[in-house]
């Protein structure tokens, strides 16, 4: 896929960090990008298209395409500077019961959620290794630890992010690079808002906090994990799930 970049005013000054958030057009990714802009960082996204928050520079690429990902990072580095923070948020679902799940259902979810994350982490880490500093935040899910019916593909892809973050920590930790997983539970998004009332109520009964998270609550945790204050936090799975995943 051809990678394109567009010049867009960045709210932060030249002292802000260069932050890449994949999939920042909607939902959790959008809130995360907005949070970093508010923090004074220079924020770019690698995404497939759509409206973006003010101050986020767009770089269109498909994370399943290695050449497109590499080209997008090269363009970001040319336009903004070395990437200091990567938030790998882009993800998809194709829920289906195990016996009905096709190879394509499984492979397409893994290709975006796991392999797409790997492609972005591999490319972003090159500059971080040279700089001897960096923050890698992988957006996982409570389902990655607890599992979910009809989500063998999605749960597998999110569970694998834990092994990825911990392997990165052991490999690159001495170079000032941290890697963590932020694992949201059910979050108020357009998708969850469209759920039938009985389904929503069923989910709510399983959450000790008795409500869904807001996207801003997830974004604030990501912002902390990417901050200097979290410099000694690495290889961790940080739940933002209202207690849903306790024990996992």
From TrEMBL:
Ketoreductase domain mapped to chain residues: 17-190
Keyword Oxidoreductase listed: yes
MF (Gene Ontology): oxidoreductase activity, acting on the CH-OH group of donors, NAD or NADP as acceptor
Domain of life, per lineage: Bacteria
InterPro entries, A to Z: KR_dom (IPR057326), NAD(P)-bd_dom_sf (IPR036291), SDR_fam (IPR002347)
NCBIfam families (UniProt xref): PRK12826.1-2
Family, as annotated: Belongs to the short-chain dehydrogenases/reductases (SDR) family.
This protein's name: 3-oxoacyl-[acyl-carrier protein] reductase
The species this protein was found in: Promicromonospora thailandica
């Amino acid at each position: 896929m051809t990678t394109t970049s567009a010049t867009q005013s960045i709210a932060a000054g030249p002292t802000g960090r260069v932050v890449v958030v994949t999939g920042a057009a909607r939902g959790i990714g959008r809130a995360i990008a907005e949070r970093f802009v508010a923090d004074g960082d220079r924020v770019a996204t690698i995404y497939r298209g759509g409206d973006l928050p003010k101050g986020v520079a767009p770089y269109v690429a498909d994370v399943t395409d290695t050449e497109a990902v590499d080209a997008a990072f090269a363009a970001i580095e040319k336009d903004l500077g070395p990437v200091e923070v990567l938030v790998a948020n882009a993800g998809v679902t194709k829920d289906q019961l195990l016996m009905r799940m096709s190879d394509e259902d499984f492979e397409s979810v893994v290709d975006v959620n796991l392999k797409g994350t790997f492609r972005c982490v591999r490319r972003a880490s090159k500059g971080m290794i040279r700089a001897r500093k960096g923050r890698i935040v992988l957006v996982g899910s409570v389902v990655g630890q607890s599992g979910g019916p009809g989500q063998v593909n999605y749960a597998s892809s999110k569970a694998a992010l834990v092994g990825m973050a911990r392997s990165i920590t052991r490999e690159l930790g001495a170079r000032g690079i941290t890697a963590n997983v932020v694992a949201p539970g059910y979050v108020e998004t357009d998708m969850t808002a469209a759920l039938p009332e009985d389904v929503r109520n069923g989910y709510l009964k399983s959450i000790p906090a008795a409500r869904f998270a807001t996207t801003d609550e997830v974004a604030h945790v990501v912002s902390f994990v990417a901050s200097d204050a979290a410099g000694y936090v690495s290889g961790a799975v940080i739940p933002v799930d209202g207690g849903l995943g306790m024990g996992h």
